Every structure is written in structure tokens, then in C-alpha cells.
Description:
The complex is a heterodimer. Chain A is an all-alpha fold.
Amino acid sequence: MTILAIIFMSTAVLSVIVLAIWCYYHVLKKPGGKP
Amino acid sequence: MSNNATPQAWGSRLGIILAVSGSAVGLGNFLRFPGNAAENGGGAFLIPYFIAFLLLGIPIGWAEWTMGRYGGRKGFHSAPAIMGLWGRGAIARYMGSFGVLVPLVVYFYYVLIEAWCLSYAWSYVSGGIGIVPGQTVTEQVAASELYFNETTGANFDGLLAQGGLHPSVIFWGITFALNIYFLYRGLHRGIETFCRWAMPAMAVCALIVLVRVLTLGTPDPSLPDQNVAAGLNFMWNPDFAALGNFQTWLAATGQIFFSLSVGFGVVINYASYLKKNDDIVLSSLTSSATNEFFEVALGGMITLTAAVVFLGLVATQANIGGTFSTGFTALPVVFVRMPLGDFFGAVWFFMLFLAAITSSLSMLQPTKAFFEEALGLTHKGATVLVAGLCIAGNLFVLWFSKGLVALDTLDFWVGTFMIFVVAGTQIICFSWVFGADKGLEEANRGAQIRIPRVFRFIIKYVSPVYLIVIFLGFCWYNLPPYVRSVLGDPASGTPANRSVIYAWLVILGSIAMLMVVTAIGSRRWRAAGMDIDGKRPPDDSTGPIGLPERPK
């Protein structure tokens, strides 16, 4: 497996995981969703 | 405006997020995405993919959620009525009927694919699909194709009449009954409850298969090139030259577009059951993020890795041409070569079944809501009408199964082409007729996070232009063969395909029916004094029930 493949794979996978965790953290923190 | 004794409403914020995510996550996440990426630059494919996510997927998603919630405040829950508000008139309202056409007609064939998944899962539970373990890859692929053709009736028309009650018809019956049952139970007790259970179950199934695939190592020491690292490399190694090819950008944008289900007519309906101050900005982003997690982190790691490990690079490349060949031809061969393959095959196809049913449920609700408010039907009456229409559509696709031509025709013209039309209409109504500033102000009402200001420019200029360019490119590359299949090709003496003609009659009949219902609805809404052209601000005293109040 090339270094570039590892970089692209880990960047893409980590990006979507971090985005999902960030979103759910904030959704669950404020279930009503109002400011 | 419906005759419901108990108005429809979501039970919780997480519920609508999971329902929208369930609608978006489907077979394309696990089967179409990896094949698309591998054929279009590998890791480099992710560059145009994420650009399209940022410039098209997220903004149009926000626009759809906003349009839906705003429509709900005026008492509307269907795409024609809501788009009439945002487009301020009859043209947008009738264009909005395509937002009902898409989920309805896609359901005509999608539930059959869902039934195939259930049928495959059951076959693995009860002993496999008949592929002999000791054969060569070529022989096993041929056996897999044979099984697929028998399951789908792709060899000839008249699947319903093959040897009494065909197993696929039984699985369709089970799947269809499940769909109607959850639809009848309503938004909260049916769709939301099911998605709250099915989405985590789908993630668990996918993680089980992912762990198995990533721990395969080099299963056959005599074939050292067929290992997990080679599989991941095949999927992710970037080919930057592909970025210079317009087709790569087209494929990446198309993947984002269809994967997120923007322009599908579902979100606009789902969001209409929210209250005026319920957050939509973070909810929309969370649904998109869920879809991306399933697509990139799970779909991108499992399918092709397993295929390369067991089939080798050459056979994998030969069998990733489409969703069906990857999922229903190549992967069964993978499972027969994998230790405990029947177990993992059952888990995999059950996961695909869950992915499909959470999507198909979302296709029924917009049509049901439309019949309720346009024809004044009760919840029960609208459910029966939707079920009747879908049975007719399903039987059509089941019967005209040869070469899956009827299915493919509906998928191309309604499930692909028409989605561009609906999304284009939505973004133009949002940004240019209603106004981007007013639209974003409406979106930010009650938002837990605010939409960054840069998206005003993106949603007004970049998204519509991007969408038009991609749509034109899509038409340029894809329309000619489909037009020839409708009209026939005098140059080569090929006549028009009979199944294509019938499929077109189904499409035209559905369009005519929805236009008539839109006309009836317009008359009813106007007679009831409703603001169908969006000329007055919403009167929130008559709005929907929406989410429960957050505890103070």
C-alpha cells in the first residue's frame, strides 16, 4: 500500500468520523435544538 | 391540510435525523461509491467528491430542510404545495409535483431490489446461494450471475409466472407488507421508531463485516498479492491524472448528489413536520455526516478490499462496473471463499436490506402526505391509495424483468434525470425567487449553529451554476443511448425496446396523475383560503405539532 493511499484513506475516513462525532455531540447536547 | 384525527409529528430531534439519514443511506453507499471511486482516480476521486459535498450537497440540503419547515408553518407537507410557496406560483407548484413523482416511481423498482437483498440474506441463512467452493473464480462468477438472473427474472419477462409462485414474489410480498405496515403506523410510531432501531443495527452489521475484512490478512499464501493492503491500495491509491477528466468530476458530483438524496422530495416532506424554531442547520449537517460516515468509512473500506483479497485485482476490476455486478455477482463469490462466508453473507445482505428499507419507507411518506392534503383523504385512505399504486408499479417491474430494462429505464429517467430537475427547481426557488437572504434568515431561525456567511454566495451562485454544468455534462454523456432505446436506432436497424416504451407509459401516466391531483389540491387549498402562492407571511397559530418543547 503506497504512502499516498494511506494518506488519502486516513484523511477521508478520519474527516467523516470527526464530522459525524462533532455533529452528534452537539445534537445530543441540546436535544431541543434551540439556541 | 388533511383530515387526520391525529396530526403527524416527529417524536424527537434524533428521530428525524436518523429518518433522513436512513433515507440517504442505501445500496449506493456500499456498492456504488467504492466502484465509482476505484474507476475514477481512487483516492484522488475524494477531492472532487468532497468539493461537491461542500458546494452542492450541504447547501441544497439546508435549502430543502428550510423549504420543508417553512411549508409546514403554512400547513403544507407536500412538495407541490411547498414549492408553490417558494416559487410563488403555479409553475413552481406543478414542477413540485416531480418531487412526488421521484419517490413514488423510484419505489416501483427500489422495493424489488430491497426484496432481492432479503432473499439473498435468507439464502445465506439457509445454506448459501449454490456457488461451489472449489471452482475457479470465472466459474463462480458465472454461477453467481446465474443465481442473480434467476432471482431477478433477468432472463425473460413474466417473472410472476415462473413455476408457480416465484420466491422473489414472496420476498417482495414480505418486504412490501413491512413497508406499508410502518407507513400506516405513522411518522413517529412507524418510520421514526423503525429508523431508530435500524440505523444502529445497520452500523453494527457493517462494523462486523469491516472487522472481518480488515483482519483477513493474506488468506491464500500461494497468492501473496491478494491481501488486505493490496485491496485498500486498489481503492485508495490516488491517480491525479483522473482529476483532469471531466467524467471524474461528473462521477464524484453524481455520487454525492444521489447519495445524499437531495432533490428526492423526501427531506422537504420530512422537515415540514418541524416547528418554526426547531433547529434545521445542525440537523441537516448531521444527517449528511451520517451518510458520509456510512459511505466513506464503511463502504469505502469493505467492498473492494474483500473483492481484491479473494478475487484478485483483475477479476475485481472486471466486476465493479455497476451496483448490481459489484453487490450481487462479485460479493457472493467473495463470501463463498471466505471462512464463515455464509454467516458474513447473511449479515452483509441483511445490512443492505436495512439500508434499503429505511430508504424505501421515506419514498412512501411524501406521496401519502400529498394525497392527504390535496385530495382531503384520511391517513388510512391515503395509505390504501399509495399501497394500490405501488402494487401496480411493482407488478409492472416484476413482470417486465428481462434484462432489467424496465427497471433501468425508470431508474435513469426518474431516479436520476428527474432528481436534477427537482433539485434545480428547489435551489432556484430558494435562492432567486424567494431570495437567498430571506431563505438563509429562515434557515437560521432557531438554529443551533448558524450557516456561515460565505454560503450566501455559494447557495446563490455556485450551487446553481455547479448543478447546471453537471446536469449538462450528465446529459451529454448519458442521454444518447437512452433516447435511442426509446425511439429505436434507424442507423443500425434497432427497434425501440418494448419494455422501455411501457416504462415510459408508466412515467407519463404517473406525471399526468400527479398533475391532476396538484390541480385538485390547488383548488381545494385556495377554496380553504390558504396562501398557496406564498404572498403572506406564515401564521404560526395553525402550524404543525412538530417536536416536543425542550425542557427549560
